[in-house]
């Protein structure tokens, strides 16, 4: 019997503020073939209270949806699944509670991505499904935020994520489903004020085609088609007509508009208000619709990571250039840190953690651009708060933590909470980076001697050639100080002559 290799299947899940989406695709040659799509209304943002805490009902709705999605992707390898959470979980102060409970129903890591990263991935999803030449303006109105991107090909040039979404605006301007012309005007003005700071940049850069993505704009398009405009193009005039139709109703459940589904009615007025304000602010003439969005962006980038260069590597290189990092020193530290980490992780480690260590080593000195005193803290701040395309919030936190603890005292109680990784995962990475930084303290091209490292939990044994420390007294003093730092943190670093090893 001849065995035929089955195409690899990959899945992407978009945990939005209004709906959760999952798309599954087969990798066929150098292209992706969508094989299934799944969507569930979760109304996650409805569960955010004034203290930005998710209530238990919203958490349960989200978990129930993820449990359902888990049935479809049961048995998928972790590298074939990518899950991104957006605005609501970015804002929720108890997001970690949701993520911990989600582990029991969906055994794959959930990434909470920054707004700018969400924008980049949305553009990537649209670009793979809409192939018009020239620059494109892409607008995606979600439940909690709106992303606006101008780009060409697959590369965004200008991107922002604004805190305005159909769920949050519905709660604020159309409470209990009440609709009026006055409420519509207030919502439009609020959205115009949000757009005020960025509108001139977008109009100056310009675009050849405007494209809308995701549920809000799709719903508006369906209503416009039902009004007799078969091409589905959203124009200012057609959108103004939709505004009139909406404000002619007093309650959202009375919106008997042809083309409008019942589940979209509660947030439709808010979505119309936001889109009409964007049309006004950017002077948009017409907008087409794309089926591609965040989940498609996740899919295509997942496959790109297997076949091509990782955008995170390009981001690290660009950031090193921007902050005038000494590339030769960073490369020396990176190579040594990787060597030490491999030796210390003889029981195996994840490719992702090794990659994060590599990028952390490349960027460990970005804070020198601010000042030398406390530069490790400056580096941590930059890596935590800069826009870093390709990195989710947890990955940026890991990078910031690595460089924060590259030198000086190990105040491990200051380590931030993590959800995808555990603190114990970071300890070997921190130790490897610290040793690499110490060993290259002289910043010279002189090669390090042969060295062997063995690790036994919190005790590391570093074996160096006999007499080498005697001939490198300054470095020996640095290593002695490093031993003291480790001791105070409850770790142990033993340095011995290489021939003492059995």
UniProtKB/TrEMBL annotation:
The keyword Ribonucleoprotein does not apply. It is a peripheral membrane protein. GO terms for cellular component: plasma membrane. Belongs to the GppA/Ppx family. Its EC number is 3.6.1.11. InterPro entries: ATPase_NBD (IPR043129), Exopolyphosphatase (IPR022371), GppA/Ppx_hydrolase (IPR050273), Ppx_GppA_C (IPR048950), Ppx_GppA_N (IPR003695), PyroPPase_GppA_Ppx (IPR030673). Signal peptide: none annotated. Homodimer. The keyword Cell membrane applies. Its main location: membrane. Residues 311-483 form the Ppx/GppA phosphatase C-terminal domain. Keywords: Cell membrane, Hydrolase, Membrane. One of its GO terms (molecular function) is exopolyphosphatase activity. This is Exopolyphosphatase.
């Amino acid at each position: 019997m001849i065995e035929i290799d089955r195409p690899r299947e990959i899945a992407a899940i978009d945990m939005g503020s209004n709906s959760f989406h999952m798309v599954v695709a087969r990798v066929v040659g150098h292209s992706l073939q969508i094989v299934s799509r799944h969507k569930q209304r979760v109304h996650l943002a409805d569960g955010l209270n004034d203290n930005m805490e998710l209530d238990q009902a919203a958490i349960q709705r989200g978990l129930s949806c993820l449990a359902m999605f888990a049935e479809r992707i049961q048995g998928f390898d972790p590298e074939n699944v990518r899950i991104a959470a957006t605005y609501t979980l970015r804002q929720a102060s108890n997001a970690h509670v949701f993520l911990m409970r989600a582990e029991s129903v969906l055994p794959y890591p959930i990434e909470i991505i920054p707004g700018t990263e969400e924008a980049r991935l949305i553009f990537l999803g649209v670009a793979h499904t809409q192939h018009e030449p020239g620059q494109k303006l892409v607008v995606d109105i979600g439940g909690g935020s709106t992303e606006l991107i101008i780009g060409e090909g697959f590369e965004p040039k200008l991107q922002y994520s604004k805190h305005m979404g159909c769920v949050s605006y519905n709660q604020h301007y159309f409470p209990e489903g009440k609709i009026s012309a006055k409420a519509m005007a207030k919502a439009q003005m609020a959205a115009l004020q949000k757009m005020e700071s960025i509108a001139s940049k977008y109009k100056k850069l310009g675009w050849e085609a405007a494209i809308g993505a995701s549920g809000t704009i799709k719903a508006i398009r369906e209503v416009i088609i039902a009004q007799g405009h078969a091409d589905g193009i959203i124009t200012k005039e057609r959108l103004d007509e939709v505004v009139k139709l909406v404000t002619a109703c007093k309650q959202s459940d009375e919106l008997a508009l042809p083309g409008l589904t019942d589940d979209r009615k509660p947030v439709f007025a808010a979505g119309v208000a936001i889109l009409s304000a964007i049309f006004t602010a950017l002077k948009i003439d017409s907008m087409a619709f794309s089926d591609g969005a965040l989940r498609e962006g996740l899919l295509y980038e997942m496959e790109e990571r297997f076949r091509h260069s990782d955008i995170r590597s390009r981001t690290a290189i660009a950031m090193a250039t921007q902050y005038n990092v000494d590339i030769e020193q960073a490369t020396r530290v990176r190579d040594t840190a990787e060597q030490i980490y491999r030796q210390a992780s003889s029981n195996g480690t994840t490719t992702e953690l090794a990659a994060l260590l590599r990028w952390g080593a490349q960027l460990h000195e970005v804070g020198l651009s601010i000042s030398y005193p406390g530069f490790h803290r400056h580096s941590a701040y930059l890596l935590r708060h800069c826009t870093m395309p390709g990195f989710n919030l947890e990955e940026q936190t890991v990078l910031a933590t690595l460089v924060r603890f590259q030198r000086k005292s190990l105040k491990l109680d200051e380590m931030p909470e993590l959800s995808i990784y555990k603190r114990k995962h970071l300890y070997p990475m921190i130790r490897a980076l610290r040793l690499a930084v110490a060993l290259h303290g002289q910043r010279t091209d002189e090669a390090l001697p042969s060295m062997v490292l063995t690790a036994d939990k919190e005790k590391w044994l570093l074996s160096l050639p006999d007499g080498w420390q005697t001939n490198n007294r300054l470095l020996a003093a640095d290593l002695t100080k490093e031993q003291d730092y480790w001791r105070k943190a409850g770790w142990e670093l033993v340095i011995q002559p290489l021939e003492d090893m059995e």
